[in-house]
Amino acid sequence: VYRRGGLIGLFVSGITLGRNMMVNTKYLYSSNDKDVDFYYKTLAHERAHIYQQKIMGCFNFYLRTLYEYLVSPGYWNNPYNNPKCLEYWADLYMKLTH
Fold this sequence. Notes:
Blueprint: E1 2-4, E2 14-17, E3 20-23, H1 33-56, H2 58-71, H3 86-97
Parallel strand pairs: 1-3
Antiparallel strand pairs: 2-3
Helix pairs in contact: 1-2, 1-3
């Protein structure tokens, strides 16, 4: 289920919770082309998380996400820069599809 806007947009640009993907629309309706591009990149990134959950199952996906953020961020402290992390692969998917 794709949802736009909502309170979550006050805190993050996009998030996937189970089969619900929420992306902040404030970027979509901006007059700045970079903001609109950011919206579509965020949409692609969150789509990758939907796919990861489909492959891994929701429970395993969130267990691993918590592990990557809290317990073992890997050899880099940022999961977006670590090829062993789910965020890295979601960003790679975003770059390849957008």
